[in-house]
Design brief:
Blueprint (H helix, E strand, L loop, with lengths): L2 H11 L3 E6 L10 H9 L6 E4 L11 H13 L3 E6 L5 H13 L4 E5 L16 H12 L4 E6 L10 H13 L2 E8 L3 H13 L6 E5 L5 H11 L5 H10 L3 H21 L4 E5 L4 H11 L4
Parallel strand pairs: 1-2, 1-8, 2-3, 3-4, 4-5, 5-6, 6-7, 7-8
Helix pairs in contact: 2-11, 4-5, 5-6, 9-10, 10-11
The structure holds flavin-adenine dinucleotide.
């Protein structure tokens, strides 16, 4: 099913879209672990599962397509296959699009990918909007395209305003749904929503939520996302950083609280970054399922 249709249907029902993100295991020998995770995650009946492409050091090969296709076939759950472009040639993108179409994938997340300092990159596609245009062209409009957005601004943009102006290029290129970068401060997300709507961006936007359940997750997560940390969050970390069990519970509770508040405010969807830890995602789902 085309994912924009899911948002339309849910909006008509007055419900948020509930989605999950997983990543391909780093080691090929560990490949089946993703299906073990999905086996647990399926109780949450997600509207779709997105599969990252080479993010966070995981393998950027054909595994995204394979995993997305298997989840769709074996578990009858809709999937969204991510694709990055900063290091791809026209030929690479053409091959990937053909492969996704052959695998009957209908939805694709068009991303630029991070620029790693010192790494040699191709730059045949400079931005996600250029990839979105290419996907439209090559798939003759058959693939639905989604994109990323940043409630606190992308780290390369000079300001949130500039980033929102750039976001319009994605929408113009055919991106029909946005998923946000993770954030811990709902106020930041809500004021971002207000600004983009005022700026004429009306596509559905899902809120990206990452439950923090271990102290060692915090530094890396903040460094990668640039998310600001509200007082309630830092207080929780300070209180429980040396008590792993208490931090685990408090982290889930925090994520549930974020989701419940956003749903009460009428958010289009919540997208849980599962970090391939299905038990945490299932617990968050338990805390919000009465609202879904
Ligand atoms: P772009 O939209 O190209 O934006 C990058 C920067 O360029 C921004 O500062 C923007 O303001 C600016 N910009 C955008 N368009 C233009 C333009 N036309 N002209 C001038 N400036 C412009 N990374 C992975 O490697 N694999 C993944 O699977 C993955 N999944 C992600 C999922 C989500 C929901 C999110 C939020 C991020 C994900 N990322 C992933 C990370 C993403 O690749 C990085 O954040 C990357 O730095 C930017 O990607 P983008 O698609 O938003 O880029």
């Amino acid at each position: 099913m085309k994912i924009p249709e899911i948002y339309k249907k849910k909006r008509a029902e007055g419900k948020p879209v509930f989605s999950l993100e997983v990543f391909p295991p780093k080691r090929k020998s560990n490949r089946d672990s993703i299906y073990e995770a999905v086996e647990i995650l399926k109780v949450t009946e997600p509207d779709f599962i997105s599969v990252t492409y080479g993010a966070g050091g995981s393998v950027a090969d054909f595994s995204t397509c394979e995993i997305a296709s298997n989840i769709k076939k074996e578990y009858k759950i809709e999937t969204l296959a991510h694709l990055t472009c900063i290091n791809s040639s026209q030929e690479d993108v053409k091959t990937m699009i053909q492969m996704l179409r052959d695998a009957k994938i209908e939805n694709i997340m068009a991303l630029r990918g991070d620029i790693v300092p010192g790494e040699d990159i191709k730059r045949e596609f400079a931005h996600a909007n250029e990839l979105a245009i290419e996907i439209q062209r090559k798939s003759r409009g058959e693939l639905e395209i989604m994109g990323a957005c940043y409630p606190e601004g992308h780290y390369e943009a000079n300001s949130l305003e500039e980033d929102i102006q750039n976001l319009k290029y994605k929408i113009g290129a055919g991106v029909r749904v946005l998923i946000s970068q993770l954030f811990f401060d709902n106020y930041k997300f809500c004021s971002f929503l207000e600004r983009v709507r005022e700026d004429g961006i009306h596509v559905p936007i899902s809120a990206g939520i990452m439950p923090i359940v271990k102290a060692k997750q915090i530094e890396k997560t903040v460094q990668l996302s640039g998310a600001s940390l509200p007082h309630d969050f830092t207080e929780m970390i300070a209180r429980y950083q040396h008590e792993p069990k208490a931090l685990y519970e408090a982290g889930i509770e925090y994520a549930v609280g974020q989701c419940r508040d956003l749903i009460a405010r009428g958010v289009d969807g919540v997208h849980i970054y599962t970090m391939n830890d299905p038990k945490v995602a299932v617990r968050v789902h338990e805390g919000i399922k009465d609202l879904l």
